[in-house]
Amino acid sequence: MPTSDELKLRQSLMLRDSLDKVARAREDSILEQTRLDSLERIVDQNKTKRYHVVMGSFIMDNNAQRMMKTLTTYGFTPQKIEFANGYAVISAFQTDDLSQACKRMNELFDLDITPHDIWIYDINQNLHK
Fold it and tell me: pTM above the 0.90 mark?
């Protein structure tokens, strides 16, 4: 049978282990939140670019996802922008420089993937959600 000192020691060790687990879980949580916050900032930075070279407007999400996958295979970082009218547009290129957007749009016309409705969206039009 354990003595009272041994019981106190066991309780103390169990309490310390529990506190250590909570501290590790909190650290993990903080690290995960920091990672998510940094990813969100990256996404927000791309969304705040003024001009978007749009490769299509889609009502069906599977078509939008297919265009995003295609653009990714060509080395682009596509972005899906939800419009207030229910459509989603796929932006192949984002910039704050209109001449750079026009140049990239013309380059995209040379690709086999370019649809006929390629255009430049200015976020100042506020058509998106």
Answer: no
